[in-house]
UniProtKB/TrEMBL annotation:
Protein's cellular compartments: Cell membrane
Keywords: Cell membrane, Membrane, Transmembrane, Transmembrane helix
Keyword NAD found: no
UniProt-listed Pfam families: VTT_dom (PF09335)
Organism ancestry: Bacteria, Bacillati, Actinomycetota, Actinomycetes, Kitasatosporales
Transmembrane segments: 7-27, 33-51, 63-85, 109-127, 148-171, 177-199
Subcellular location, principal: membrane
VTT domain segment(s): 45-168
Keyword Cell membrane: yes
Membrane topology: Multi-pass membrane protein
Family affiliation: Belongs to the DedA family.
Name of the featured protein: VTT domain-containing protein
Length: 209
């Protein structure tokens, strides 16, 4: 097990891991297939090894810095997608009009933000590709940044803290690094599936009389 922990420490060690995680989290709003969650959990797993003395502390990222890095990159990615969609013009409008998923998300998001709530934004951060749909939908619908970005920040922080907690505590409880990482990833995917299920069951926006 020690060798396994050390191997994870080598993979996630050094300041470069922050740059890799930040780039992956920022870009996965456009490319949801990027393994941003895997990277965050693996780094947190290594940090748990350092906490128990199984990996040298200098070889792994700091937990708080890891959460801050992932949160900041998540918000920046949302903001980039939001601004691009805002300026997208007629071509993007036509693309959204052809996509029922984007159209419905746009309407739901507008209702949620108008009523002072943004739970949909937080849920979408966990659901597969949900972050992309919500960020692009908010920009294309020209929702106010002050209504969208605070919820984006809460969503990014929730996702980052949850992912780090899974990797950190999963390794402490299970002990075996790769098993702990696998179980943590299953829990992250389970949260995504649950978020997607809740979003699908969200009431359809009422039609105007």
């Amino acid at each position: 097990m020690l060798e396994s922990m050390e191997s994870v420490g080598l993979l996630t060690g050094g300041p470069w891991i922050y740059a890799v995680i930040a780039a992956s989290v920022l870009l996965d709003v456009f490319l949801p297939v990027l393994p941003s969650g895997v990277l965050v959990i693996a780094a947190a797993t290594a940090a748990a090894g350092a906490a128990t003395g199984q990996v040298a502390p200098h070889e792994v990222p700091d937990i708080l810095a890891l959460i801050l890095c992932a949160t900041t990159a998540s918000v920046l990615g949302d903001l980039v997608a939001y601004r691009l969609a805002w300026r997208g013009g007629a071509r993007l409008d036509r693309a959204i009009a052809r996509s029922r998923r984007l159209t419905v998300a746009q309407e739901r998001l507008g209702s949620a933000l108008a009523s002072g709530g943004g739970t949909l934004v937080v849920l979408a951060r966990f659901a597969p590709a949900g972050r992309s749909v919500v960020s692009l939908g908010a920009g294309a619908a020209h929702r106010r940044a002050r209504d969208f970005l605070p919820w984006s920040a809460l969503a990014g922080l929730s996702w980052a803290a949850y992912s780090v907690a899974l990797g950190y505590y999963g390794a402490q409880w299970l002990g075996t690094t790769w098993l702990a990482t696998g179980v943590s990833l299953l829990a992250l995917f389970g949260a995504g599936a649950g978020a997607a299920f809740i979003m699908r069951r969200h009431p359809e926006p009422a039609e105007a009389p």
